[in-house]
Amino acid sequence: MEKFFIKGGNKLYGKAVVQTSKNATLPILSACILTKNKVVINKIPNITDIDNMLEILKSLNVKCTRIGSTVTLNPKNAKNIKVDCKLARTMRSSVFLLGSMLGRFKTAFLSLPGGCKIGARPIDIHIDALKKLNVSVEEVGDYLYFNATRAKANRVKLRLASVGATENIIEFASTLKGKTTILNPAREPEIVDLCNFLNLMGAKIYGAGTKKITIYGVDSLYGAIYTPMGDRIVAGTLMIATAMCGGDVTLENAVPYQNENIIKKLVKMGCQIDIKSDIIHIVRERPLVSIGKIVTGFYPEFPTDLQSMMTVLSCTLMQPTYIRERVFENRFLIVDELKKMGANISKMDENCIVVRAGELKGCEVCARDLRGGASLILAGLVAEGTTIVTGVQFIERGYEQIEQVLSSLNADIKKYEQKSSDNNLNS
Ligand code: EPZ
């Protein structure tokens, strides 16, 4: 089993180029099904969520050719088949294809591993919005069957500003005759990137990133050549790592204008941050101070995906920090792992923790989700001694060679197989 081995205590110095955004590239790859023409996506990130999405597209008979970080997709002969549960791996992957499959084929089966029922929280917003567009939904075994043959453009108001639901409605409505309006859409920069890509293909989408998106359906979409935006969560992760370790780091392709919330917080805590075009330069010399509380929310509020990194950073501060998670339930999975390292964290309620000063000591900890896993690596960067992080597969869903990026910034981190007999590595 592969593990990360991290020796804490190094400051971070140097320059890194931030990878392309996972959460922009996934819906863009899904949107390729909407056209019968060739699409070229440049600089796609080398991460397993993207590999998984490409495998799913291939299973739908989309020709995918990958040369380096450029992928050419030919969706001309795409087939409307059930996305294999195994391939879908998590419902999220197959959910992200729903809108484009309905836009192209007018019907779609959505695999629901574990037989979730209609109305289950994770997709009720998608379903309610599609029903508003006169799409029918019914359960067929462990699948949901969607039929859009009688769909009509309409005004859709989302109960919650769901990113995936917004993306699905945008993709589906792009080729749905008439005017569709989305009220209370997600405003994330990745939505704007998807709409820029679709408009390049000939779609007519207005208002992305605002509280109202208007889509005038077109008959068909052209092919396109596109490079998705930089990954603002990876950029945020590297900024927080530098803030925790101290040092002087320059990040390129770092989408600074889409990262204002975390930048403002780190400056308030004592970092110096300069931004210029797509570059973020962060310096941390003196001890940081807590800003008292961090509350996550829908963009442009503080991103939920950076919450666990800020929890780790808060462990290094002398003052307490209250952290409230308002987007996902149960997104404090790493608290128990951090406590193994000596973190002083207590739960105020289901969605709020308070983090107090404590000494983090290296030990073996286990990643259980993508962003929590990255946060455990950051904890290892500042912990005393060696930290071993297992659950590498979760982290590599979204971070491209994180050990190489951090090593290039002077961190002491390696990834290798640990044989069961080899147990003196912790020395
Ligand atoms: C996207 O997930 C991102 N994933 C997530 O990033 C991100 O955390 C999330 O948006 C919020 O910003 C991708 O873009 C691939 P949501 P998504 O629908 O679309 C509830 C990462 O680490 N909800 O905006 O799945 C839901 O349970 C990942 O890169 C419903 O109740 O998130 C959650 O509490 C993690 N019913 C909230 O809304 C629904 O039908 C936000 O979910 C849909 C969502």
Q: How would the blueprint of this fold be written?
A:
Blueprint: E1 2-7, E2 12-17, H1 22-31, E3 39-41, H2 48-59, E4 63-67, E5 70-74, H3 85-88, H4 91-105, E6 107-111, H5 121-132, E7 136-140, E8 143-147, E9 155-157, H6 163-173, E10 179-183, H7 189-200, E11 204-206, E12 212-216, E13 224-226, H8 232-245, E14 247-252, H9 260-269, E15 272-276, E16 279-284, E17 293-295, H10 307-314, E18 321-324, H11 335-340, E19 344-349, E20 352-356, E21 364-366, H12 370-382, E22 386-390, H13 392-395, H14 402-408, E23 412-417
Helix pairs in contact: 1-2, 1-4, 1-7, 4-6, 5-6, 6-7, 8-12, 10-12
The structure holds ligand EPZ.
Describe the 3D structure.
The chain has helices spanning 22-31, 48-59, 85-88, 91-105, 121-132, 163-173, 189-200, 232-245, 260-269, 307-314, 335-340, 370-382, 392-395, 402-408; strands at residues 2-7, 12-17, 39-41, 63-67, 70-74, 107-111, 136-140, 143-147, 155-157, 179-183, 204-206, 212-216, 224-226, 247-252, 272-276, 279-284, 293-295, 321-324, 344-349, 352-356, 364-366, 386-390, 412-417. By secondary structure, it is an alpha+beta fold. It starts with a strand and ends in a 10-residue tail after the last strand. The strands form 6 sheets. Strands 21-22-1-23 form a 4-stranded mixed sheet. Strands 2-14-16-15 form a 4-stranded mixed sheet. Strands 4-5-3-13 form a 4-stranded mixed sheet, covered by helices on one side. The radius of gyration is 22 Å and the shape is globular. 32% of the residues lie in helices and 25% in strands. Ligand EPZ binds next to helix 1, helix 5, helix 6 and helix 12.
